Amino acid sequence: MRSLVLGCLSLVWLLSLLLPGPISAHEVRPAYLELREHQRGAFSVLWKVPMRGEMRLGLTPVFSGDTEASEPMTRLVPGAAIETWTLNARALQGQTLTIDGLTATMTDVLARIEYADGTAWTGRLTPSEPSATIPAAVSAVDVAGLYLILGLEHILFGIDHLLFVFALLMLAQGIRPLIGTITAFTVAHSITLALATLGVVQMPQAPVEAVIALSIVFVAVEVVHREQARAGIAARAPWLVAFGFGLLHGFGFAGALGETGLPPGHIPFALLFFNLGVEAGQLAFVGAVLGLAALLRRALWMPPAWWRRVPAYAIGSVAMFWTMQRIAMF
């Protein structure tokens, strides 16, 4: 019965992804502003802005105090426009940074300032809070809160990662296999997230993203095989498959974290809380699905036998489209 309920939920969830809404419209990758002080009062600025097709989002960073900026140079990369310029300011501490145009978008901005003395500030600006005051110093608590939220948002808006977890929920039968499967996935992606972020292991991001999509296809096929009484390795040992593909998903998380970077002086702390945010979001998602499944079980609705395969085919079809799309971007 649980697999039927999860199947119904998965189909509803997949249909919701195809409709316009906040999740599908949200800019998954934030804009990024970086200032590096190479001598007192002189900063090199990098401003990376997401693009929608050929259109650059109309975002502009503005400081409240006296600053002098050079003419920006612009270059285009896949999915973003990068502008660089130099900025002179007596002091940025105490000034207010505002991102003009941010309130009209659904993206966030991660801002980071690195000073010549080795200190740094990292802040997050959102459409509801497009301004932030640059403090004289940043604490570990500030870093923890920021990266916890970034990790939480990344998993909740990372539809491919959630779809993989959803397929695992359909595959694992019973509480113990389910706990073992989710634990294996968590351990695996935590390992590669740490190794890749710290530079111990490097993987090209485009093939990783394609294989992540392919991992969803594989699990969806295994769900169909189990329903046809042809259970494969994934049905017999879902924790093993979760661990193996979890290593790849960890590289995907690391790629997203690499887009924002880690604050100097707080790298282990930021990495830890980003990962905790990912885990919190993942557990919240699993809890929500199982909670809804429990509610539907009480309704005692028994769909026909063929229905159990429909969600797996839907998941596999979406993931196969992602696979081909990502391969085409190599």
Automatic annotation (TrEMBL):
InterPro entries (UniProt xref): Put_HupE_UreJ (IPR032809)
Keywords from the named record: Plasmid
Protein name: Membrane protein
Organism: Sinorhizobium americanum
